Amino acid sequence: MTDTIQDDKFVELNYKVLDEKTGQVLSTVEFPISYVHGADQVLATMVTDQLIGKSAGEVIEVPIDGNLIYGPRDEGLVFTDHIENVPEEYREIGMKILMENSKGEPMEFIVTRMDDKTLTIDGNNPLCGRNLIFKLEILTVRDATEEEIEAGTKVIDGPDVDIDPDRIVPIN
Question: What is the rounded distance in angstroms from the CA atom of residue 144 to the CA atom of residue 102?
């Protein structure tokens, strides 16, 4: 009998996020992700809900309004400044810049435009404001162990390392 995705099942999958209008791949995972269905929220609920009843080997496409996951686009998070006011290491399209908002919370901005005089950064998630398709390839579905259910994901046995900070020696 083939296992199907439901609560307390260990699931491993690959996925891509595509722009519904152009078909362009906007995001992809570099290696499979794993989680215990119902115990860990690695993807938006509106995506994982569509996995229920599916099994290993299936590929599904889930259309999603990006605004529902990432919020609507906020033009107040787009800033353009004179290029000489921007440190040279940030003068590259696609460069990510970590800043803090007025509450001291970290926010990631991306350099989206640059010319000889100005540079523009955008704090919006690149997927907001788009109609998206999550394309998911289900690799593994099996009963999760008690440890995996508690952790919400795969538990890997490894050495129990207890490091004494007073015994750390720099390597030259």
Answer: 43
Split into its structural domains, the chain has a count of 2
76 secondary structure, DSSP code: G
Choice between 69 and 154, residue whose per-residue pLDDT is larger: 69
- Burial state string for 92-129 with b = 16 or more CB within 10 A and e = fewer than 16: eeebeeeeeeeeeeeeebbbbebeeeebbbbbbbebbe
User: The domain containing residue 17 runs over which residues?
Assistant: 9-67+128-150
Q: What is the CATH number of the domain that holds 60?
A: 3.10.50.40
Is 43 within 8 Å of 72 (Cβ atoms)?
Answer: no
This prediction's pTM? 0.70
